[in-house]
Fold this sequence. Notes:
This protein has 257 residues and is mainly α. Helices cover 58% and strands 4% of the residues.
Amino acid sequence: MEEYIEEFVADWKMAGKAEQTAQMYACHLTKFFRHCSDPTLTSAKVWLSGEVSPATRRKMGQALRAFGVFAQNNEYEFFEWWKLVPLAKEKSFAQETVTEDMYISAKTKVNSLRDKALIETLWSCGLRRSEIANLQVEDVNFTDGFLVVRTAKNGKPRIAPLSPMARRSIRRHLGPRKSGSLFQMSTNAIRLRLQRLGLPSAHAWRRGWAVQALRKGVSETSVRAAAGWSSGAMVARYTQALSGELAIDEFQRSWAG
């Protein structure tokens, strides 16, 4: 089945989906086919039941389902039972989300020009830590107000909005410098810096950025494009806990109009 798995990964990448997810699924599929040479729904359930962690078991089930979709699309006569593969339910926990008040408070905790620029970039762009770490000075378009994210999670480049405040902060941080790494920080250095400042993680800033954008009336389509999400699933996931508040804000705007 190795050739089929390679083809599955290739199709996944050509569809513009995240390479990291494809590799994770391929790893699970390789283990599954080693476990059972003649896969059936029963053998799949037995294999899944051997995993204690619901989160991992869910990923394993998703790998089987994704491979089933691949087999169906290519008219391969196996895995026809893929729709019946059970997906483990995960407990949902409230995830920290940066609010506007937290952003304003954070600005009072930073002193260096680099830290100020980092905070403004997190709040303005909603970038992942790895994306921030990979930014180059040349990726900043001060005139039109955006950043070029050349290495996104899905392997595709995109542009992210840059607020006037973020532009000013980055200009002050850079000074006369015209090239090189924008922040000169690794992903781990960014994580540690936020911790030492007593600030939320970059992902909490990313969630807050998405919620704030929707709250201000930015369309879901634009949020998805700026965040690099291929579907609305991630928007829903990030904003699920605050959906009621977002609805109230939207109604208030409609009444004000």
